[in-house]
Design brief:
Distance between the termini: 29 Å
Radius of gyration: 16 Å
Bound molecules: flavin mononucleotide
Helix content: 25-40%
Structural class: alpha/beta
CATH architecture: 3-Layer(aba) Sandwich
Number of helices: 7
Length: 183
C-alpha cells in the first residue's frame, strides 16, 4: 500500500527544505503517491471529489508543508474545508476517514529549543498542531506522530537539510509510525 503525501508549498522554487524533501520522496515513487496542491490548483478551485478519491485509495497520508504563522499555508487550510465535507468525513453518514492514518511533516523556521515549553515560542509543536489533531479526532482518523525539521530560517546547512530529507523519507515509509524528528 502506497503512502499519499499531500505537499502544500506556495513556491517550491524558493524552497530549500520542502524541495529537497520532495526530491527524496521521488526516489521512492513506487511506494509514495506525491500530490502537490499549489501546482494542481493554481486558481484554488479544489476538486473535492478527486481529493476524496485519493484519500480513499490510501490507508496512510502525510501532509507536508512549511509552518506559516504557526499553521498551514492557506491552500492546505482550504483543502481541509473543501475535502473534509459533511456527509463524507463527518455527520451521521460521514465515516470515510475513520481509522485513516494521517500525519504532519513540517519544516519550521525557528530553532527546536524555542519550541520547548520554556522557549521563546512558549508552545510545543504538539500544542501548535492542536487544530489538526482535533480535526482528526472529529473525523475518527488516527493522528500519526508528526515529523518536524527545525531551524530552516537560521541557515540550516545543505548537509543538515539532506539529512532531514533522508529522515523524512524514512518517516513516510515507516511501517511502525515511530516519531522521527530532525534538527
Ligand atoms: C509567511 C511565513 C510565515 C512563517 N511563520 C513561521 C512560524 O510561525 N514559525 C516558524 O518557526 N517559522 C515560520 N516561518 C518560516 C518557515 O517555516 C520557513 O521559511 C520554512 O519552513 C522553510 O521551508 P522551505 O525552505 O521549504 O521554504 C514563516 C515563513 C513565512 C514565509
Amino acid at each position: 500500500m502506497k503512502t499519499l503525501v499531500i505537499l502544500a508549498h506556495p513556491n517550491l522554487n524558493v524552497s530549500r527544505v520542502n524541495r529537497r524533501w520532495k526530491e527524496e520522496l521521488l526516489r521512492h515513487a513506487d511506494r509514495i503517491t506525491l500530490h502537490e496542491l499549489y501546482p494542481e490548483y493554481p486558481d484554488w478551485t479544489i476538486d473535492a471529489a478527486r481529493e476524496q478519491r485519493l484519500l480513499e485509495e490510501h490507508e496512510r497520508v502525510v501532509l507536508q508543508f512549511p509552518l506559516y504563522w504557526y499553521s498551514y499555508p492557506p491552500l492546505l487550510k482550504k483543502w481541509f474545508d473543501d475535502v473534509f465535507a459533511y456527509g463524507w468525513a463527518y455527520g451521521s453518514s460521514g465515516d470515510r476517514l475513520k481509522g485513516k492514518q494521517i500525519g504532519l511533516a513540517m519544516s519550521i523556521g525557528d530553532k527546536r529549543r524555542n519550541y520547548e515549553p520554556d522557549g521563546s515560542v512558549s508552545f510545543t509543536v504538539e500544542e501548535v498542531i492542536v487544530p489538526f489533531t482535533a480535526s482528526l479526532r472529529h473525523v475518527g482518523a488516527t493522528a500519526l506522530p508528526h515529523f518536524a525539521a527545525f531551524g530552516a530560517s537560521f541557515g540550516a546547512s545543505d548537509e543538515e537539510i539532506k539529512r532531514s530529507a533522508k529522515d523524512y523519507a524514512r518517516y513516510v515509509l515507516s511501517e511502525d509510525h515511530l516519531p522521527r524528528r530532525s534538527e
